[in-house]
Amino acid sequence: MMDAAVVVFARQGFHAASMDEVAERAGISKPMLYLYLGSKEELFLACIRREADRVRTAIVSALDDEHGADLPPDRALWYRLSAFFAVVAQHRDAWRVLHQQAPAHGEPFAGEVAALRSAIVEFVTVLIERAVAERHPRGRRRPTADDLGALAHSLIGACEALADWSVTRPDENPDVTSARLMNFAWLGLDNLLRGTHWPRPR
After folding, report:
1. Which of the residues 3, 16, 48, 177 could staple to 85 if both were Cys, CB 3.0 to 4.6 A apart?
2. Cis amide bond preceding 108, omega within 30
3. pLDDT in tens, 74-112
């Protein structure tokens, strides 16, 4: 039922979506849909929460025992980005609901997405702090907490924009998308213009 709802919300929008269409796509009666999932607002919120949990779980569990927890910060970031873009590629309609639909319709929908974003920003900030601790030259001014927070927000904003771009390109490989972002965010435009690329894991 929720799978059907995600498709309808993604393609019709929250206001235009009808419970009749969701029920028809799910192969159940509308009274049964209301019985299990409540009103359209409750159904929309349930979809948002499920998809936010899916994204959160993918990012958190991206580093399994095979990869280990002691990777350099750039590799750790890449694995998380790759997991994120893989979820987006596998659930394109879900991403449209989560990122394009939910924030546009206010509370409580936007709050669920904001909470997910805050959790991801916090994680990325920790990775950047690790990179600073490992690589920052001695004697130079260290980035402030505001610097780190701004970098994390910038990276997540770029990540979301690239996800929006990738959902319209079904042939885009999630690992390639991740490498594109690592090239931009980790190396920067200057290095890219010089022909330097971030070494993607094989």
Report:
1. 177
2. yes
3. 888 888 899 999 999 999 999 999 998 999 888 999 999
37, 1 contact by CB (below 8 A): yes
Burial status of residue 77 (CB atoms within 10 A of its CB: 0-12, 13-18, 19 or more): buried
Dump pLDDT digits (tens) for 54-71: 999 998 888 764 555 678
Structure tokens at 164: 């929006």
b vs e for 58-71, b when ≥16 Cβ sit within 10 Å of the residue's Cβ?
Answer: bbeebbeeeeeeee
Return the HEC string of the chain. Answer: CHHHHHHHHHHHCCCCCCHHHHHHHHCCCHHHHHHHHCCHHHHHHHHHHHHHHHHHHHHHCCCCCCCCCCCCHHHHHHHHHHHHHHHHHHCHHHHHHHHHHHHHHCCCHHHHHHHHHHHHHHHHHHHHHHHHHHHCCCCCCCCCHHHHHHHHHHHHHHHHHHHHHHCCCCCCCHHHHHHHHHHHHHHCHHHHHCCCCCCCCC
Closest to 149 (Cα-Cα) out of 139, 138, 157, 141? 157
